[in-house]
Design brief:
Layout (H helix, E strand, L loop, with lengths): L2 E4 L11 H12 L6 H8 L3 H12 L5 H18 L7 H10 L3 E6 L3 H10 L8 E4 H4 L7 H10 L6 E5 L2 H9 L3 E5 L8 H7 L2 E3 L3 H4 L5
Helix pairs in contact: 1-4, 3-4, 4-6, 9-10
């Protein structure tokens, strides 16, 4: 392959716990119990929508902007200090780099959280480009973010392999003519059968493919 395009959360790093922790810490700080009903509802909401819902549900005095900023700052601390790479992910990426493979990232995250996490895990400056869904104005149900990243890397779609953990991303990358590697993450257990069917390759972890790059 000429280019490897990686998702970030759930694919490269074990970070899916972060927002659950943010919800719990935010509400506990205000003496509010965290319910499963609340967690289920905000999980599928956009960031600002979740802030509005939280403010209205618990009649909080905080403004929407204050709630969102507090959430971001709490998440930033976790990403900058506690979020770690999946086992062997760093070794695999460095081996690709040594082989001359172009490295891109296509993520729904944002620089405030992502960049300090890469630095803390020793991967700052390793990727040739980092692209965000906010740049294309479409989520990963649409292939635009993967095509945009490929263009940034100077690669054709059929020269790219996309590493993803979510079914929407795998479908989109595949529809764009890219090869796909599904990386297991517990947060997507409910879609596991579909993920295995859609992806060209399924791995439980990078230890299963790191040896493929041995000289």
């Amino acid at each position: 392959m000429k280019a490897a395009i990686f998702d970030f959360d759930g694919t490269l790093v074990d970070s899916m716990y972060v927002w659950e922790k943010v919800d719990e810490d935010f509400l506990t700080k205000r003496g509010i119990p965290v319910t499963e009903e609340y967690s289920d509802k905000v999980r599928s909401m956009y960031f600002e929508t979740a802030a509005v819902f939280t403010k209205n549900t618990y009649s909080l005095p905080d403004s929407i902007e204050e709630i969102m900023q507090e959430w971001l700052d709490m998440a930033h601390y976790e990403y900058a200090n506690n979020v770690r790479l999946k086992p062997y992910a760093g070794e695999y990426i460095r081996k690709l780099k040594e082989r001359g493979v172009m490295l891109g990232m296509a993520t729904s995250n944002n620089p405030y959280l992502l960049l300090p996490c890469l630095e803390n895990n020793g991967l700052d400056g390793v990727f040739d480009c980092i692209c965000y869904t906010s740049e294309v104005g479409m989520n990963k149900s649409n292939p635009d973010i993967y095509l945009y990243t490929a263009r940034k890397l100077g690669a054709e779609p059929d020269e790219c392999t996309v590493y993803e953990d979510i079914i929407e991303g795998l479908r989109s990358a595949s529809s764009a003519g890219m090869k796909t590697v599904a990386v297991y993450d517990p947060s997507n257990e409910a879609h596991l059968d579909e993920i295995k069917n859609v992806a060209d390759v399924f791995i439980n972890g990078y230890h299963e493919i790191a040896d493929c790059l041995e000289y």
